[in-house]
Write a structure and sequence with these properties.
Helices cover about 35% and strands about 20% of the residues. By secondary structure, it is an alpha/beta fold. Keywords: Oxidoreductase.
């Protein structure tokens, strides 16, 4: 599966590296254009390529948004994500370390509203990039990555990628309620849990 990563900051770059290491193909898109991603693409090898965001969306089978939340609206043409799994890995902040006030709505609810033709899954946003880089191949119990969404098949696809990366997928439920658990201010944000700990928390 070719995964499009929209956003090539620290977390997007880490995701690209571990996806390629796990045998996946990636197409990268950053704010400054594909020409600036040459060194990263060269590092990652033939499994990686670079494109503009709309081109990455067209080429990929699954997309991961790893840009600042305020850049999500209007970033991609709606037709480019038609019937595709769109992983919302963004975090909505209202200030340094403070969650944005969205009036009780989940940030992923808004992403789904902006891209109604896509199957939005909230995932890959709760873990610090330094942990993400190494934890999937570390010995011991697997750490959890969470999925929230309204389409079961889309969550299964994302769960499969999480498993490939060496983590444990844990379903937090529908996009609204499950996504709120994962976003800044939620109880699962930036809280590394093992699979057993995460399942115990979800079931309590």
């Amino acid at each position: 599966m070719r995964t499009g990563i929209i956003g090539t900051g620290r977390i997007g770059t880490v995701l690209a590296r571990i996806l390629v290491a796990a045998g996946h193909q990636v197409v990268l898109a950053g704010a400054r254009g594909p020409q600036t991603l040459g060194p990263l693409v060269a590092e990652l090898g033939p499994a990686a390529s670079a494109a503009h965001p709309a081109e990455a969306a067209a080429q990929a089978e699954l997309l991961v948004l790893m840009v600042p939340f305020e850049r999500v609206r209007g970033l991609l043409p709606p037709h480019a994500v038609q019937d595709k799994v769109l992983v919302d890995a963004t975090n909505a902040f209202g200030g340094p370390g403070a969650p944005a006030d969205l009036g009780g709505r989940g940030s992923s609810d808004l992403v789904a509203e902006w891209y109604p033709a896509a199957q939005v899954v909230k995932s890959l946003n709760t873990m610090h990039f330094e942990t993400l880089a190494v934890a999937g191949t570390a010995p011991g119990e697997r750490l959890a990555h969470f999925t929230a969404g309204d389409d079961a098949k889309s969550k299964e696809i994302v769960a499969g990628i999480i498993t490939d990366l060496g983590f444990a997928p844990v379903d937090t439920g529908p996009l609204h309620s499950g996504g709120i658990l994962q976003q800044p201010g939620g109880p699962l944000f930036n809280r590394p849990l093992t699979e057993a700990q995460a399942l115990a928390w979800i079931s309590h």
